[in-house]
């Protein structure tokens, strides 16, 4: 069955200014090697907030007009020429990083670090729309029993899976800096992976409460407490084996290096808004530290591990989705994410 609609509803950054516009847009046609997806649910990310607000980063990165959004799940409704690994009716979640398949990184097992990487909703039309066309390679088949809204958050959950996997947290003391959804997911994953002690840090009470649902041993509100002092206190002066830095905050980065033990591991996922200076000698060399950086998800080892975690019920992050809206209520959804005191977890748009 092919999609019959010639026109679709979509949220577009039409001009270089704050906000998004609900428009009628042509339904895309899948090119060779691509599929057409009927988007069923798409979730909001911090990147979408930057684009919506039209901050300095967005102005330097986005070329309007552009349909934005990237985290999504949907149903295959049309196949482009040459597609054999999927069929019409399949349920999929989207790997939003589209590799070229030709560069050195792609040829050596690092497609997620492709030299010519394109990102859905940033470099090409995104998922805040009824339909999305993209390479079949980037459609990860899901069980039809998986709710659409959960499928929509697999992409950011994959960021957390990759981060925690690289931390090798089993039996270790772990500090998670950042209470955004990916930090919250990391709390669940660190516990599931067998971390001995989990310390969760953030500054939003509502989201710290979401982290508490995954039973961290300690929760620290960095607005009320000095993070370094609090961590050293609860670890009786020893510090932590593993730091998972999910916020991109310069202060959190410095605190993370300060509390990391000698021979510890620092896993960096959060993206700072500007360059951050660190004491390379004291923070890394003299500590004999391991520093790992996370970009996207491994294609497709991360997705396979995530599927195992979900199917075995080792994790359940469904309650981190706290709000759902239709596309036309995007302003209401964004107001929750722009609030000084956030009272939401993950937000999903039902398309």
Give a verbal description of the structure.
The chain has 351 residues and is of the alpha/beta class. The chain has 2 domains: 7-153 and 317-350, Alpha-Beta Complex (Quinone Oxidoreductase, Chain A, domain 1), CATH 3.90.180.10; 157-293, NAD(P)-binding Rossmann-like Domain (Rossmann fold, 3-Layer(aba) Sandwich). It contains 12 helices and 18 strands. It has helices spanning 46-53, 56-61, 104-107, 148-152, 154-167, 181-192, 205-212, 227-234, 250-259, 280-285, 301-311, 330-338, and strands spanning 7-13, 21-26, 34-43, 66-67, 71-79, 91-94, 97-98, 118-119, 131-135, 139-142, 173-177, 197-202, 218-221, 240-245, 260-268, 290-293, 321-326, 346-350. Strands 3, 5, 6, 9, 10, 17 and 18 form a 7-stranded mixed beta sheet that branches. A 6-stranded parallel beta sheet has the order 13-12-11-14-15-16, sandwiched between helices. Strands 2-1-4 form a 3-stranded antiparallel beta sheet, with no helix packed on it. Helix 10 (280-285) links the parallel strand 15 and strand 16. Helix 5 crosses helix 6. It is globular, with a radius of gyration of 20 Å. The two termini are 20 Å apart.
């Amino acid at each position: 069955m092919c999609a019959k609609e010639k026109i679709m509803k979509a949220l577009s950054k039409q001009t270089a200014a704050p906000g998004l516009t609900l428009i009628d847009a042509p339904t895309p046609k899948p090119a060779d090697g691509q599929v057409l997806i009927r988007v069923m649910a798409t979730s909001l990310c911090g990147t979408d907030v930057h684009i919506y607000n039209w901050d300095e980063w967005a102005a330097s990165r986005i070329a309007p007009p552009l349909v934005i959004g990237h985290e999504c799940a949907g149903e295959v409704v049309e196949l482009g020429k040459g597609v054999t690994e999927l069929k019409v009716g399949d349920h999929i979640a989207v790997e939003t990083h589209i590799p070229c398949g030709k560069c050195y990184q792609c040829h050596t097992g690092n497609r997620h670090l492709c030299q010519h990487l394109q990102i859905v909703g940033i470099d090409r039309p995104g998922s805040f729309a009824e339909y999305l066309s993209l390479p079949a390679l980037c459609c990860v088949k899901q069980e039809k029993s998986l709710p659409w809204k959960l499928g929509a958050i697999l992409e950011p959950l994959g960021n957390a899976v990759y981060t925690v996997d690289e931390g090798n947290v089993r039996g270790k003391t772990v500090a998670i800096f950042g209470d955004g959804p990916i930090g919250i997911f990391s709390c669940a994953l660190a516990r599931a992976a067998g971390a001995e002690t989990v310390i969760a840090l953030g500054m939003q009470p509502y989201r710290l409460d979401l982290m508490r649902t995954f039973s961290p041993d300690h929760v620290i509100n960095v607005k009320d407490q000095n993070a370094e002092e609090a961590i050293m206190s609860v670890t009786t002066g020893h510090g932590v084996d593993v730091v998972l830095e999910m916020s991109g905050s310069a202060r959190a980065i410095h605190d993370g290096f300060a509390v990391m033990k000698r021979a510890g591991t620092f896993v960096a996922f959060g993206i700072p808004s500007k360059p951050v200076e660190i004491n390379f000698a004291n923070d890394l060399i003299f500590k004999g530290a391991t520093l790992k950086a996370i970009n996207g998800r491994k294609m497709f080892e991360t997705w396979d591990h995530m599927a195992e975690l979900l199917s075995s019920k080792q994790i359940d992050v469904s309650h981190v989705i706290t709000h759902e809206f239709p596309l036309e209520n995007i302003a209401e959804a964004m107001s929750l994410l722009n609030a000084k005191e956030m009272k939401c977890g993950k937000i999903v748009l039902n398309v």
